[in-house]
Amino acid sequence: MTPQDHTHDAHPLTPDWVKDAVFYQIFPDRFARSGRVTGLNLQSWGDAPHFNKYMGGDLWGVLERLDYIQSLGVNAIYFCPVFQSASNHRYHTHDYYQVDPMLGGNEALRALIDAAHARGIRVVLDGVFNHASRGFFQFNDLLEQGDASAYRDWFHVEGWPLRPYDDSRPANYAAWWGNPALPKFNTNNVAVRNFLWNVAEHWIRFGIDGWRLDVPNEIDDDSFWQEFRRRVKALNPDAYIVGEIWGDAHRWLAGDQFDAVMNYHFTRPCLAFFGAGTLDHAMNERSGTGLVAPMTAEAFAARMDEVTRMYHPEVVRAQLNLLDSHDTARYLSAVGGDASAHRLALIFLMTYVGAPCLYYGDEIGLPGGPDPDCRRAFPWNEGTWDHVTLNLTRRLTAARHASTALQRGDFRVTHACGQHLVFAREHASGSAYVALNCASLPARLPVQAQPGDYRDALSGQICTLDAQGEVNIPARGAVVLLPV
Description:
The protein is an alpha/beta fold. It is built from 15 helices and 18 strands.
């Protein structure tokens, strides 16, 4: 893929708040159980995650933990699906207008949004619009009525009879990756298009701050997403529309469809460079990230320069940058349990251009292999937490919120050699400088900054740069220098 320099291109503005956002991704079934939703057959909290079993996390539980979430410096939450579904991950939507009763229903979402907004925290929901489920009413009618169903043309029927539960024979309808549990919508049908657009509008009116769109490339129709954007932005011009696109996303990022995408182009180089010496190759090959080859600082710098110039600057500043997600092994496990690699990657995540997104539990060193292991229950026993990583996360988010340069400055690598990386976030109000030493020995690294005093956001100490502009960095350590 060839990066493009979009510096002088015209582009619609992306939501301004996203440029200053720190996101926290929550998988609702696994974050916190309030105990308010009763009468359920649940796994014990903290048991090994299972494809079919429920832990019983709910939105009331999230509301009860907003103090903790806010303490992380988080000001935006992205929720995996919350609508009624017969699956713990809820990508099998039954009712797009009802929050799952197991999560506390619409009442819990109302209370959570209001409480989050009172704290200045935005809420983005997961929109699963490519496919529904076998329990979705219109598809259920098709199963009951066959060719006579009023909703026959809402889906892609390929033959009769339909076989939604017989994996030994063709299901006779189009489904996501051939999974009969996920019948694909016929979005060429005007009624389906309006249904999905109305859902999008309904929850924007309800008060959500945006949509993360699940596999939107599989609705292979620009006009669908153009109208989706028009309707959402008409109700809330500041709504964030971010798509799950793993590859080249130029098609959707011209300003008429999505504001940004989940930035897996960021994820892979962070695995390759910071985890170069400890990568668990077998785990990554089984995970959503796929095979990752180690990178030197020079290769990492070149790749991140490409990633930074890949899309229009407005898009780059709104990209959802992530080290891992519910679809990948957790970063800590993907780098073989190397906590120092994880911390170095967190430093880069929080100091790079775009909106950083923490996957719940990463801040306390929660491990996890590929799905479903990456969806473990959050361990609320603080004695099990990695407090070094937690404290680092809080220092990093505080630095980001305090520095316009870290939020909005241009990204420029100034030194890359072996296991050493130095870059600047340049802004008219004053620039920030980040030096990372991924080697096992201390290093003295050049920082191309004006001589003077700077505060290291990680240690809190004042660092005086002389005319040589060099700083001492501990082994597997870093400095984040902000103007005093």
